[in-house]
Amino acid sequence: MLYFSADDLRAFAGRTFRAAGTDQNLALIVADHLIGSDLTGRDSHGVMRIPQYLGMVRKGTIRPNNRPSLASVRGPVAVVDGNYGFGQVTGRFTAERGIERAKQHGVCVIGAGRCNHLGRIGEYAEMAAREGVVSIIAVGVFEEEVAAYGSLKGVLSTNPLAIGFPAGDRTDFVLDFATSAMPGGRLMAASAAGQQIPPGILLDRDGKPTTNPSDYLDGGVILAFGGHKGYGLSIATALLAEILVGAEAFVNGNENGNEKGGEKHDQKTNAFFAFVDGAAFRPRPVVESEADAALGRIDGAPPAPGFDRVRYPGEVAAETRERRLREGIPVPEATWEAIRHEAHNLGVALPNPR
Q: Residue 48 to residues 191, 212, 239, 318: CA-CA distances in angstroms?
């Protein structure tokens, strides 16, 4: 395992996307998101994605200098067209507009289409919570990556869900999880690190249980977490994002879903964002102080054997961020080799590990 400072990795990622033809401001947004994911311990959405995104740029799936735009606005309801740019750029744009309009109307619901991979959606929930805004964010699609409950066939994607709630003096509550038993990116990270995974997460291409994460890359399917409960949540995220928001044709205004030049794009990632101003029901200081008290009762619960203390969602990410800022971000050597190969091809200097 190699360790790098967050600042060095952030600067390197920005240079790499810039060398691939991305506008500097957009490259920095993507780089900041990737390093932020690594800092919180979500390595599956961190720098390991650099080779994948560069491949998507070369393929034309990501159009690196395309910027998102507001496709329609009807009071507290809006639609964002990601224009097939970087998903992190669209995610930040959507969250900023949603937070702003929630403060104006009390609530705002935004659908975002043609997004590409949005990265760690918990970041957008964190953005809202810092502004005193409650958020619910769902990214979902009907694909063949996650098995239906009671079946061996994949019918869904990993379909993440995030919920953020602002606290006052305490760490904001941020729940962010894939509705699959393990995110695809984490399986990729485990494969790169040569690690096995616990049972009950993955089936190989023949439908047999496996603990080898490489089977995911060889046609395996992931199980939903929590049996029928996670499966139901996964369907809900896909209904909100793909069906309610609409496929890319809805954002495009073109019933055939084609580009103006007749090219059909193979990415249909959509997202559903809902924001509620923390002051919509009661004064914000009251909401946040009572949230502090409630979260404090959770923290104050006696820990079970094997735990140093009880934590609520958001605290582990905050603690991991502080530790990795001090100690560095870990990157498996296999992951770094793939990144090094891309950097070499682009003529980008590599940072030195600690």
A: 12, 19, 29, 21
Which three-class secondary structure state does DSSP give residue 130? helix
Q: Give 219's contacts (C-beta < 8 A, 6+ positions apart).
A: 204, 205
Other Cβ atoms within 10 Å of 106 Cβ, number: 14
What does the alpha-carbon distance between residue 208 and residue 50 come to, in Å, rounded to a whole number? Answer: 31
Give the single-character DSSP code of 242.
I
What dihedral do alpha carbons 270, 82, 44, 189 form, nearest 10°? 90
Cβ–Cβ < 8 Å for 51, 342:
yes
Token code pair at residue 256:
């055939």
Q: Which two tokens stand for residue 238?
A: 């896909």
Name which of 43, 2, 329 is nearest 185 in CA terms. Answer: 43
- Please give the domain boundaries of the chain with CATH numbers for all domains: 1-65+314-354 (1.10.1530.10), 66-180+224-285 (3.30.1370.60)
* 226 backbone φψ class: left, alpha, beta (φ>0; ψ -120 to 50): left
Residue 192: partners with Cβ closer than 8 Å, 6 or more residues away: 48, 332, 334, 335, 338
- For the segment 117-136, what is each residue's pLDDT rounded down to a tens digit? 999 999 999 999 999 999 99
Report the alpha-carbon distance of residue 293 to residue 346 in Å, rounded. Answer: 52
pTM: 0.92
- Quote the CA–CA distance of 197 and 200 in Å, as a whole number: 9
Q: Which residues pair with 275 in a beta bridge?
A: 108, 135
Segment 313-341, tens digit of pLDDT: 999 999 999 999 999 999 999 999 999 99
Residue type, 196: Q
DSSP string for 291-348? HHHHHHHHHTSPPPTT-SS---TTHHHHHHHHHHHHH-EEE-HHHHHHHHHHHHHHTP
Confidence of residue 170 (pLDDT cuts 50, 70, 90): very high
